Amino acid sequence: MSNNDQIIKLTHALEKLTSKEAAIYFLTMDTKGQAKASVALTYDIVKELRKNNYNALIMHEKNDFHDVTTWLGDEYKDIPHVSIESKQVEVILSDLVIIPEVFGHVLEQTQEMPCEKLILAQAYDYVLETLPPGLTWRNYSVGTCITTSKKQEEYLTTLMGNLKYYNVQPYIKDSFKKLQEPQPPLISIHTREPRDTMKIIKSFYLKYPQFKWITFRDLRNLTTKKFAEDLSESFVSVWVDDISGFGTFPLESMKCGVPVIGKVPNLKPEWMTEDNGIWTYEINQIVDILGNFVQKWLEDELPEQLYADMESTVKVYTEENFKNSVISVFGAINERKIREVRMNLEKLTPVGPEDKTLEGSVNELYKN
Amino acid sequence: MKDISVIVPLHEINETIEEYLMKCLQSISNQTTKPKKVYIVHSDTKEFTDFFKSWNKPDGIDVETLVNKDKTDFCSQINTAVENMETEWFSILEVDDEYSKNWFKNVKNYMESYEDVDIFLPLVVDVDEKQNFLGFTNESIWAMKFSEKMGELDNNTLLNYQNYQTSGAVIKKESFENIGMLKPSMKLTFIYEFLLRATYNDFRIMTIPRIGYKHMNMREKSLFWDYKNHPEIRIMPEEAAFWVEQAKKEYFFTYDRAVEYEN
Asked: Which of A85-99, A296-310, B214-228 has the lowest mean pLDDT?
């Protein structure tokens, strides 16, 4: 490629970046119509970026991608989607492709893409799943990773210290709210492994037959709206997710004013304290803790402080803070990309552009 | 809080009952939200007159004694007290039972959220004379798909399940009077018949899913203990079945029709 060609390309990229027209593709898995917190967060980021005039889009592998609005809600219906299979996506230098950690297998295929790739790591436990031994994302020309908590960042830094990390702080939606009426005797349960749910329910009824009239609700495979409604209609929730990266469910529960009995995940969430829930390292203790909690709730003997601590824990996870972190992270990335393109342009045009036809636009951009 | 009176019907007085009485009244004194008035209903026998002349009223509650001269059965005592009270709501406390300390506080919370409920049933803990836990009562309507609406008692459910407890319940006086109060002639199943009649008359009956009442089950010499064990008034299974069937026939009628069991 001649210098002029490169200058044209870089100038074009600079224009796209400064005007925020550069595409930001979020490679997204097909949820097949099932609710998935990590995908919901991706859509929230895209929505927020679009609101701030960034050209963010959802990118998916196959043409027959299931519409997420069935479980996530109509407010996401205007987000544009592109399919890789359609072969109509033309990625250019100024674009950004965001790859979720579970899509590690595409890193090799995307290596030749002319644009920058970034990793969005929401589930730290999956990051090595698709990487060959000894390799890091850096080997696939990925130098930046966005995570959802400081804890994940700390962990990932121990594995791949040579990357730049950013944090986007998830938020707990306002659809999670306290029930206006007193809470009914329902227990919500959310475990990563379905067999854990059944094990806990069956053990509970065997150990505490006097509480057989109390109903469990498995919150799997619900729309976001129904999920929030069911959760708020509980007086306690149970959470088991060893490989949780952030711990959205307990925070949603706290926002509903529903205390959580949970197993401490392998990566202890940064919001978790001794007082904002009932936490254990032993899954087999959960049933007895729950039995004791139920008795105390029925006797109306639970400490008010627990509810106060829950409220103060969750209050920082606001939509406002999420929006600020998204704009701050992507603003910083965009700025950095602009700087890089300018530097490359400067290298190619140490004394200014040779081609007079380019002069106007390049000079104008340099002024910015 | 909407005013509530507590009715304590008394059928006998002796040292043991006195001890129970003081304990049950203490459970009213200990309430975090107290009812307005307590009515102790008793007959006009000398034992009662003597006892109430010199008894130590518990502190912190307004207690009034009411003499029920004629019919001294449980239902008549309750009806008498209801006729005499001025509060909008009432609750029945059996002398050998106790409220849990937050019961009326919880009732208040539920009254604010469910304004059209006529009867708030407590989650009852049944214990034996040694205070051993035997089980819960009124809890079943919170079980999934048990009643038509979770947490609420309805007529269809009652036709299949009879074991519900109104002692400790908080009942709207006006609704209670409108449907004819308790029927003394429904010997064994007066509570069951009352609940059938209440649901037939579209009462909204809800169990507050918090332990509100501790009920001593089958205390020796209590009415239901006598029905089971006393050689003279023992009720045999055929008679028990009769009273259940009778309740199902009588609940359509507002007032007591003096039903009798003929052997």
From this structure: B214-228
Note which residues in 190-209 of chain B have CB less than 8 A from chain A.
208-209
Does the residue B263 lie in any domain? no
With respect to residue B256, please indicate whether it lies within any of the assigned structural domains: no
What are the residues whose beta carbons fall under 8 Å from the beta carbon of A361, sequence distance 6 or more?
Answer: A11, A15
Considering the domain architecture, whether residues A201 and A260 belong to the same structural domain is answered as: yes
**Domain annotation covers residue B140:** yes
Q: CATH number for the domain including A40?
A: 3.40.50
Domain annotation covers residue A195 = yes
CATH number at B55 reads 3.90.550.10
Distance from CA of B253 to the nearest CA of A (A): 33
Range of the domain at A100: 3-171+319-367
Sort out which chain A residues have CB atoms less than 8 A from B110's CB and list them: 182
CA separation (Å) from A274 to A261, A278, A310, A315, B39? 12, 7, 11, 17, 47
DSSP bridge partners of A260: A237
Q: Are A152 and A126 in contact (CB under 8 A)?
A: no
Q: Model's pTM, two decimal places?
A: 0.89
Nearest CB partner across the interface for B109, out of A182, A185, A212: A182
Cα separation, A361 vs A8, whole angstroms: 10
Q: Does B143 fall in a domain?
A: yes
In a domain, A210, yes or no: yes
Predicted ipTM?
Answer: 0.92
Establish if A105 belongs to a structural domain: yes
**Could you tell me the CATH number of the domain that includes residue A301?**
3.40.50.2000
Residue A300: list chain B partners with CB under 8 A: 100, 102, 105-106, 210-211
SS3 A210: helix
Identify whether residues A350 and A260 lie together within a single domain.
no
Q: Are B68 and B75 in contact (CB under 8 A)?
A: no
- B140, A213: Cβ pair inside 8 Å? yes
Record: contact A215-B144, CB cut-off 8 A: yes
Q: Tokens standing for A329? A: 């992270």
B136 contacts A185? CB cut-off 8 A = no
How does pLDDT run across A313-328, given as a tens digit for each residue? 999 999 999 999 999 9
Does A339 share its domain with A228?
no
Please report the pLDDT score of residue A105 as a whole number: 82
B37 to A170, B7, B49, B208: CA distances (angstroms): 53, 9, 21, 22
Q: What is the DSSP letter of B57?
A: P
Nearest CA in chain B to A235: B209
